[in-house]
Amino acid sequence: MTPPQVKSPHGTSEMAHVAARSPTRPFWKSQRSYILASVAGVVGLGNIWRFPYMVGQNDGGAFVAAYAICILTVGIPLSVIEASAGNLYDRGPVGLFRHILPGHGHLLGWFLIAMLVAIMSYYLVVSGWTLGYAVDAVRGTLGTFEEFTSGYNSLWYLLALSGLCLLVLLRGIRGLETTGRVLLPLLVLIVGGLAVYAQSLPGAAEARAFYFRFEADSLLQPQLWRMAASQAFYSLAIGQGMLITYGSYVPDRVNVVTSSTAVALTNATVSITAGLMVFPIVFTFGIAPNVGSELSFSAFPQVFETLSGGAFIAVAFYLLLFVAAFTSCVGGLVVILAPIRDETRLGQTKAASLAVGLTAALGVPSALSFSRCGLLVNGIPFLDFMDLATGSGVVIVAGIVGAALIAWIVPRNELFTSMNAPAIVRGRFRYSAGWMIAAARYLPLAALAMLLVQVLGT
After folding, report:
1. How far apart are CA 189 and CA 9, in angstroms?
2. Which of 87, 219, 261, 423 satisfies CB 3.0 to 4.6 Å to 247 for a cystine?
3. What are the sequence ranges of the domains in the chain?
4. pLDDT per position as a tens digit, 235-263
């Protein structure tokens, strides 16, 4: 890691002075490094694996439209609020909420970290599958999901992936900058290449019709908007502490609004491009669009066997999944590492080892649930139980509540200053990012209204 530098405090109030910049805290080299690391952290299986099957289960084009609207109207403002708060107080979620909610605020921060540990524990397992499938594709031994999980592959690849993540974390945030600089272009290249190739398949026209066309009435369904917002929160890592932590490493004079917007739009572009890659294959080979999460790990190995050049496409596809998963794993573990280092004053090596070890240990039951042991909870795999317990609405609630607390409690002028986004004036037109603070303040009311409409409509 390069020698640390000091960021100057943004505000002059007592609250801002509490968060005076630490002389030993590292930060991104530049705005470009911050954007690349953030994209590498948030672009992952949520885009390449989860987004397509969510589209398939939620009316195709209607979901794509709702998702795009949610990214622009909710995703970007909340991303800016979280990153700006981290930038202002120079701390991750634990330190941030301790400062703005004296007394018990740190408990909310630790709750976000605990939730992320739970999510990352099974995310590491699924990411390990992508590594295993990539290895099998290179060896030419790609089989069914049942064959892959018949032994203890899930466990071995969990441990292997955890070790790779630890190696990156030991380099500090410079490891993330390198990851984004080297792997991100490869990710974009593979996604774009496969999407272009997929348009030559016989089912491409039908896929585009499913993916982009919809009835206007379908946009009146509250359930559709809830699922689209949930996907936007999930893929942008809102409410998971990641944006706050990454924002705390932002150097002076970086425009948080333009940076967060670039990250969100890149994230959404990768998601939509992934759909253009997946659905032509789905319609060409008669796979049900709503088959769910098994698309990547069950259906595609059979599809690749029938494609011209299928062996090459399989290698590229699962390498893509692994790259996306790995960068997101590293990004999530950085968020877990930050409060451990900040709150305990452990060195980078010990803090990184503790973060990875704790998350991997919690992931062992999830790995064993898809192994010869077949560990179940209430009749379902332990991994599925963890996903249901932590991923069903918790992230979106945490994101809305956390951003609202920040927007209401942090002085508006200090939060706006930390965005470092001067107003744009073009003649009579004037644009200011201040509306994002208002959006975060009143979003809980809009969410409650939508929930009430959904309940009354059932």
Report:
1. 39
2. 87
3. 14-457
4. 898 988 889 988 988 887 889 999 999 99
Whether the Cβ atoms of residue 48 and residue 316 lie closer than 8 Å to each other = no
Q: What's the pLDDT tens digit per position in 261-319? A: 999 999 999 999 999 988 998 888 888 787 666 676 777 777 777 777 788 888 888 88
Backbone φ/ψ region at 49: left (φ over 0), alpha (ψ -120 to 50), beta: alpha
Which tokens is 400 given? 């809305």
71-82: average pLDDT? 95
Please name which of 313, 226, 315, 235 lies closest in space to residue 269, comparing C-alpha atoms. 235
65, 355 Cβ separation under 8 angstroms = no
Q: HSE, CB side, 13 Å, CA atoms: give it for residue 427.
A: 0
Query: 357 is written with which tokens?
Result: 């070890």
- Alpha helices per DSSP H over 5-152: 14-18, 31-42, 45, 51-57, 61-70, 76-89, 93-100, 105-139, 145-148
The token pair that represents 233 in the structure block: 């929160």
Whether this prediction's pTM lies above 0.85 is answered by no
Q: For residues 399-421, give the mean pLDDT.
A: 92
381 SS3 class: strand
Q: How far apart are CA 95 and CA 90, in angstroms?
A: 8
For residue 173, the model assigns a pLDDT of 56
- Give the residues across from 380 on adjacent strands: 377
